[in-house]
Predict the structure.
Amino acid sequence: GSTARYDMIIIDAFTGFDIPAHLLERETVALYKSHLNDDGVVAINAISRISSKKPKFRDGVIATLGEEFQELSIYPADPTQPRRDEQNVIVVAAERAVEFEYLQSEDVIC
């Protein structure tokens, strides 16, 4: 296996509106983490409602990433879009707090 380590791993894979399940399994998330530098981040482009009474997908992703990473944030890709609409969100996981100014850090969801 590869021993390469990265500053950022970006997951941007869709089947329709869904990310293939195997890309978000706990074992896969652990593999991502093992290939990060100490200050590295995993960024996942996903489609989700930011505010929803049934945020199953978003909460599932957060739960899985939270098992491996200390810091999690969700950024709306377009902060002008209503939060109840399905939209692109960027889920960021890291061991230390990370802010991306261009992703509207004041609109971080969690």
